[in-house]
Design a protein that fits this description.
- By secondary structure, the protein is an alpha/beta fold.
- It has a domain of 181 residues: FAD/NAD(P)-binding domain (3-Layer(bba) Sandwich), CATH 3.50.50.
- It has a 7-stranded mixed sheet with strand order 7-6-12-13-14-11-15, with helices on both faces. A 5-stranded parallel sheet has the order 9-2-1-10-16, with helices on one face.
- A hairpin with an 8-residue loop joins strand 3 and strand 4.
- The relative contact order is 0.20.
- It comes from Sinomonas flava.
- Pfam families: NAD_binding_8.
Length: 472
């Protein structure tokens, strides 16, 4: 029987491990931390008694993933829960735009901009089922649906600020800009529209669901699936050198390119090692979790029903803040994401006190205190918020990296989404998962299709490893 070792137990590492085990390999997963899951963990440690997602919180790509959705994870307890409204973007004066899991309802809510929204996002929503097979893969690969992907690409290649000119209201433009800001990149950069179109289309089809019982339920389901096929997991096992893994036929590395270069050492071809060391990381997240009594007092009633709330004001304000962050300057009003997962999964709360998950975009490796800036953005759209807070837990960029080594400098996207790197991560090659070391493959979020709980990096790396084994 062939054997495999997977280094790292994030969603990609576990997905790759499951795929290898299902094909008959003897699989071991080695995880440096005491708990598995990487960015897909939940705990009650930060806010005792309240269940908090430690990073990944809403999972459109897990629900849409061509691989994860076919694994039968429901057999292992995974249940998706949907908020009433997927996303709300409030503006000053009580105005707000809402993204529903219903393209007609979203368009209707945008008033005079509804038809233009539907022409862009509605069209992508209606072809999302076919688009997702190409979107969640290497962009340099031969597409399975070339015509649908080509039509999407014409819209996706534009900067978000340029695409937003098709709408006339602040509400529609801000809604699009806030979704585009998930790229952690200046909104004037090419291809930032792609992030907004894909995430908005996902919201209008599969939604932005949460996992019942926390994001860790996804990890637990994958671990149970792995165990069913004979795979094992060891925690507290940090791998520093590939020689520790000698004897395994296949190795998957759910780590950053720089970590892969360090682990592989002189087994990595020099040109690949140079590419991995050039790999750039992007801006950081600054996390603050809140225990909030009675919920956040949003001025917008729609925001009180939304799983996710984007805070940044108009698209012009968001663009200014994201540009500053990318340049290494902390904006006075950063872009902030707020998660109200308890609305879809009430079991996370206790006695009328709810866990609220939030993070601000800050410069890479930011060492300052952004708590007040983050709280100020919430208070801006929910006056009186401070009076509802019963406890807080802060985790800045350094703490994020200490908790998950793949979050270099607090970069939860595992790589900058700008320039050539957005198209070809971790390097320009027909097989982005191959390291050049025989039988060793990179499968982290630094590989296509990038960040998100979709498992596709792991699945595709494992598929490449199986093809290599068959040729050997």
């Amino acid at each position: 029987m062939s054997s495999a070792v997977v280094v790292g137990s994030g969603p990609n590492g576990l997905a790759g491990a499951v795929h290898l085990a299902m094909h008959g390999l003897d699989v071991r997963v080695l995880e440096a931390e005491p708990t598995i899951g990487g960015g897909c963990r939940s705990s009650v440690e930060d806010l005792p008694g309240l269940l908090v997602d430690e990073c990944s919180a809403f999972h459109p790509f897990a629900a849409a993933s061509p691989y994860l959705s076919g694994l039968g994870l429901e057999e292992h307890g995974l249940r998706w829960r949907q908020p009433d409204i997927q996303l709300v973007h409030p503006l000053d004066g009580g105005r707000a735009a809402a993204l529903w899991r219903d393209e007609a309802r979203t368009a209707a809510g945008l008033g005079l901009d509804g038809p233009a929204w539907d022409r862009l996002i509605g069209r992508a929503s209606r072809s999302f089922g076919t688009l997702v097979e190409d979107i969640l893969g290497p962009l340099v690969a031969v597409p399975r649906h070339p015509f649908a992907l080509a039509r999407f690409g014409l819209d996706a290649v534009l900067p978000a600020t340029l695409s937003a000119r098709r709408w006339r209201t602040d509400e529609a433009r801000a809604l699009f800009g806030g979704i585009a800001a998930h790229a952690f990149a200046p909104l004037g950069s090419p291809l930032t529209s792609s992030v907004a179109i894909v995430l908005a289309a996902a919201a209008q089809t599969v939604g932005w669901p949460v996992a019942e019982g926390g994001s860790g339920a996804i990890t637990a389901a994958l671990a149970a699936r792995l165990a069913r096929f004979g795979g094992s997991i060891e925690t507290g096992r940090r791998v520093e050198d590939v020689r520790e893994l000698d004897g395994a036929d296949v190795v998957l590395l759910d780590v950053t390119p720089s970590a892969a270069a360090r682990i592989l050492g002189d087994r990595l071809p020099p040109r690949v090692a140079a590419s991995y060391r050039r790999f750039r990381h992007g801006p950081a997240a600054y996390r603050v979790d809140f225990a909030v009594e009675g919920g956040i007092p949003w001025t917008s009633e729609l925001a009180r029903r939304a799983g996710t709330v984007h805070l940044g004001g108009t698209i012009e304000e968001i663009a200014e803040a994201e540009a500053a962050t990318a340049r290494g300057r902390m904006p006075a009003r950063p872009f902030v994401l707020v998660g109200q997962q308890y609305l879809a999964d009430p079991g996370r709360s206790r006695d009328g006190v709810h866990p609220v998950w939030a993070y601000a975009h800050v410069p890479h490796a930011f060492a300052g205190d952004a708590t007040e800036a983050l709280v100020g953005q919430i208070e801006r759209f929910a006056p009186g918020f401070r009076r509802t807070v019963r406890a807080t837990a802060v985790r800045g960029p350094a703490a994020l990296e200490a908790h998950n080594a793949n979050y270099v400098g607090g970069d939860i996207g595992a790589g900058a989404n700008t320039g050539l790197q957005l198209l070809a991560r971790p390097r320009l090659t027909p097989d982005p998962y191959a390291t050049g070391a025989p039988g060793v493959y990179l499968c982290s979020a630094s590989t296509p299709p990038g960040a998100g709980t979709h498992g596709m990096g792991g699945y595709r790396a494992a598929s490449a490893a199986l093809r290599w084994l068959a040729r050997r």
